[in-house]
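Twitching motility protein PilT, Skermanella stibiiresistens SB22. Tokens?
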Amino acid sequence: MGSRHVRLFRYGGNQAVRIPVEFELPGDEVILRREGDRLVIEPVAKRRLADLLATWEPLDEDIPEFVDEPVEPEDVF
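Tokens:
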């Protein structure tokens, strides 16, 4: 991918860098961290339901049986 010299600028009270198109990251959020005198920018992984469910502890209780009985019609008029 290579490297490219870019300029820093001020945006409000923050220092900012314009990321060239060849370095664009997916999504609209990133993780920014410092490693020594370097800044590392990584895309935030898309959250998936399967990843969330994998973090849950199994239920200790039994889930009651669900009985799906037809609803009795009601005369509303």
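The two ends are 71 Å apart (CA to CA).
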